[in-house]
Design goal:
Elements (H helix, E strand, L loop, with lengths): L11 E8 L5 E9 H5 L3 E7 L5 H13 L1 H6 L4 E6 L3 H11 L6 E4 L4 H6 L2 E4 L5 E4 L2 E6 L2 E7 L10 H9 L1
Parallel strand pairs: 3-4, 4-5
Antiparallel strand pairs: 1-2, 1-5, 3-8, 6-7, 8-9
Length: 169
């Protein structure tokens, strides 16, 4: 499992991007090279088991949307939400959660990031397949400086307020 002091894995995530105002035309999924995208930046990264799922949609993402300005004032350059979903689902979820200009909604469609970090959650028996565990991390120049991993079924330490306190320290 990834730990404090480790470098983010060198994998590719996907981000659904729109061209033009109002979503009139789309460019579709665009690759995001994790190490390259994190280089020289402070990233508040949080991962969730799935887009549109109850805790993720009602608490986790809204908390980061609500605290985005405070996180940025504390020195965070970007906020990333990572989920084992495809880029189209993450794009629709971004619209639903009104994350534009606040969060980057990054798709880990084949769970490569989840596997590389060792933070997987096996939900095969529940019809959801291999997912990401719920966690948050503060990353500086590609290195993990804080890591908050939830116990299965919990939402106690990976919230935006906890990461904000850590970023402000």
């Amino acid at each position: 499992m990834i730990k404090i002091g480790d470098t983010l894995p060198d994998v590719t995530l996907m981000e659904y991007q729109r061209a033009g105002e109002g979503g009139c035309s789309t460019t579709g999924p665009q690759p995001v090279q994790v190490r390259q995208a994190a280089a020289g930046k402070t990233i508040a990264l949080f991962a969730v088991p799935g887009a549109f799922t109850p805790t993720c949609s009602a608490q986790h993402v809204p908390g980061f949307v609500e605290h985005a300005d405070q996180l940025k004032a504390a020195g965070v350059d970007e906020i990333w939400c990572v989920s084992v979903n495809d880029a189209f689902v993450m794009g629709a979820w971004a619209e639903d959660q009104k994350t534009a200009g606040k969060l980057r909604m990054l798709a880990d469609g084949d769970a490569a990031f989840a596997r590389a970090t060792g933070l997987t959650l096996d939900l095969n028996g529940k019809g959801l397949g291999l997912r990401s565990n719920r966690y948050s991390m503060l990353v500086k120049d590609g290195k993990v400086v804080q890591l908050n991993v939830e116990a299965p079924g919990k939402f106690e330490v990976s919230d935006a307020k906890t990461l904000l306190q850590q970023a402000s320290a």
